[in-house]
Write a structure and sequence with these properties.
442 residues, Pdz3 Domain, six-stranded antiparallel beta sheet, three-stranded antiparallel beta sheet, 11 helices, 19 strands, 24% strand
Length: 442
């Protein structure tokens, strides 16, 4: 998938989430008679627009957001005697409903998308099977003494939930130990891994990758040592001279460093286990030892499609949705404790990149990412900050408790201050996003 297509898909995904958010505000406002002047996807200059009734519908130049402009909504437009159709003419309860409707739509979308996904079927793997295949030299895992072939039995006393969960936990644990219980052969051992920051990106890493089975991709080269030894396409290489083969790179390194000495391969062919001896030969063209086979890594724990009944899907979507809802607060708490750097935060550019790249992986991943971002958008908008829907709800609560509206000038000053802070944060995370995009561009 081209970078341009990823960007387009990412923008479409983000725009959809913004659209349903603003649609929630729009429907709630119209339902109680509040006049909506503008319904916009994006900010800034209007690129496309048309007017129907009292509302102008438009797509604007800056695609990272959107807004619904209602009559009398801004503090500068408010007066002691609002006219019918003004935002402040509606009751406190009606205005609270308008403010709450946007986040509610995002939260509901996340749950419904997850429910449909689990109902149709999600590829899943065994979450408890974490066998280490590669440990980067000098990495936290290497320093802790983790070895290829080790199986992770528990992480901080809890059963593992798959490699993705392991890497996510390492990502938010910079400088904080992760206690791993390992099984090494017939023995169990415990190690402490202290993740370090990865490439100054603000996230942690442990330097451990999962085990892969290494398969002979096609028939050996005619006349090669591998052909003479009896290798066949589809053979799985499990060990060389008794040492575990955890990834294709293990085979390449071992053959290259063999100096032409005979090597004993443990090979699985169907239900059989074979011992094949092969003597590498020197390639003058490539200036290294070769045996004449092409390899590919295969997952020893391949995903299988799991379908659920409507009730099972509802339970699973609720569980996953709550996990998504907690995620922003877990992340913020980790930042506060120094386990994640502030520069690891993603802004609109990073969100577009994540959505776009998720479509490159598979449909399931893309829907999960959209559900996660939609849930985060809904939850974060409910935080009681002056420029969020939660801030509007807070002002309305204070108005209800006081029995009269807050001072419009004071509200305007508070909102302006928070808007400046929000723009500053937006610029900072955008710069961080751009630096990460540059880092991973070819």
């Amino acid at each position: 998938m081209s970078i341009l297509l990823q960007v387009v898909l990412g923008l479409l995904g983000l725009s959809f989430l913004v659209f349903i958010h603003e649609l929630g505000h729009f429907i709630a406002a119209r339902k109680v008679g509040v006049t909506v002047h503008t319904f916009s996807i994006g900010f800034g200059k209007k690129l496309l627009q048309y007017k129907r009734g009292e509302t102008t519908y438009c797509i604007s130049a800056i695609p990272f957001g959107g807004y619904v402009a209602m009559a009398g909504e801004q503090p500068s437009e408010q007066s002691a005697n609002p006219a019918p159709g003004d935002f402040t003419y509606a009751t406190v309860g009606q205005r609270a409903g308008i403010a709450f409707a946007g986040p509610l739509i995002n939260i509901l979308f996340a749950f419904v998308a997850l429910w449909l996904l689990y109902l149709v079927g999600v590829p899943e793997v065994r979450q408890d099977l974490l066998t280490v295949g590669y440990v980067e030299e000098g990495s936290p895992g290497d320093i802790a003494g983790v070895l290829p072939g080790d199986t992770i039995l528990s992480i901080d006393g809890k059963e593992p939930k798959g490699w993705q969960a392991f890497h996510e936990q390492a990502g938010i644990s910079i400088g904080h130990p992760m206690v791993l219980q390992l099984r090494r052969g017939s023995l169990d051992t415990t190690v402490k891994i202290v993740p370090v920051e990865f490439r100054e990106m603000g996230i942690g890493y442990a330097g451990i990758l999962p085990l892969q089975y290494v398969m002979v991709q096609s028939a050996p080269v005619a006349g090669s040592p591998a052909e003479a030894a009896g290798f066949q396409a589809g053979d799985t290489l499990r060990a060389i001279d008794g040492k575990l083969v955890a990834m294709a790179l293990d085979v390449v390194r071992t053959v290259t460093g063999s100096n032409g000495e005979p090597m004993q391969f443990t090979v699985h062919r169907g239900e059989e286990e074979l011992q094949l001896e092969v003597k590498p030969e020197w390639s003058a063209a490539e200036e290294r030892w070769l045996i004449g086979i092409a390899l590919q890594g295969i997952d020893p724990n391949p995903p299988h499609l799991v379908k659920r009944t409507p009730l099972q899907a509802a339970a699973k979507s609720w569980e996953k949705g709550i996990e998504f809802a907690k995620a922003p607060f877990v992340y913020i708490s980790r930042i506060a404790r120094g386990q994640v750097k502030v520069r690891a935060m993603s802004g609109p550019v990073g969100i577009v990149q994540v959505i776009g790249s998720s479509w490159q992986q598979d449909f399931t991943k893309a829907v999960l990412i959209l559900a996660l971002i939609s849930m985060n958008l809904g939850i974060m908008n409910l935080l009681p900050l002056a420029v969020t829907d939660g801030g509007v709800l807070l002002f309305l609560l204070l108005e209800a408790l006081r029995g009269k509206a807050l001072n419009y000038k004071l509200m305007g000053a508070i909102q302006s201050t928070f808007f400046f802070l929000l723009i500053s944060l937006f610029l900072y995370v955008t710069l961080q996003d751009l630096s990460r995009v540059k880092l991973f561009l070819p």
